[in-house]
Amino acid sequence: MTIVEDPIPELSSDLSTISPPNSYGSVVLGGTFDRLHDGHRLFLKAAAELARDRIVVGVCDGPMISKKQVWTLLLLCFLYVQILIYFTCHHE
């Protein structure tokens, strides 16, 4: 997977103005992560920059996914997790 430069500069503000890099032991985030897009990439990149020890990513299923218009086309939760692990580990 190739990650390109941030296409929308105003969304990729310097996180060090909010919190210094590695300023949190753990960063926890969650979502459905259906159809991974640049917003998800920025979300994961911010978590990777702020976390010192670990990132915990919760992938929603059940009622949260069934409300999506194309929920039957979504990837299996296991595949989501594998993609997110790869995406997070290769954020640079």
Topology:
Elements: E1 24-31, H1 38-50, E2 51-59, H2 63-66, H3 77-89
Helix pairs in contact: 1-3
What does this structure look like?
This protein is α+β, with helices and mostly antiparallel strands. The chain has a single domain, classed as Rossmann fold (3-Layer(aba) Sandwich). Helices cover 33% and strands 18% of the residues. It has 3 helices and 2 strands; from the N terminus they run βαβαα. A two-stranded parallel sheet has the order 1-2. β1, α1 (38-50) and β2 form a beta-alpha-beta unit. α1 (38-50) packs across α3. The longest helix is centred in the middle third of the chain and has 13 residues, at 38-50. 8% of the residues are buried. Mean pLDDT is 73; it is low at 1-12. InterPro entries: Cyt_trans-like (IPR004821), Rossmann-like_a/b/a_fold (IPR014729). Residues 28-68 form the Cytidyltransferase-like domain. This is Putative rossmann-like alpha/beta/alpha sandwich fold protein. The chain crosses the membrane at residues 70-89. It holds the Pfam family CTP_transf_like.
Number of helices: 3
Strand percentage? 15-25%
CATH class: Alpha Beta
> What is the number of beta strands?
2
- Please describe the biggest sheet, giving its number of strands, its sense, and whether it closes into a barrel: 2 strands, parallel
Assigned CATH architecture: 3-Layer(aba) Sandwich
SSE order in H/E notation?
Answer: EHEHH
Oligomeric status: single chain
Q: Strand sequence of the main sheet, in spatial order?
A: 1-2
Low-confidence stretches: 1-12
CATH topology: Rossmann fold
Assign a percent range to the helix content: 25-40%
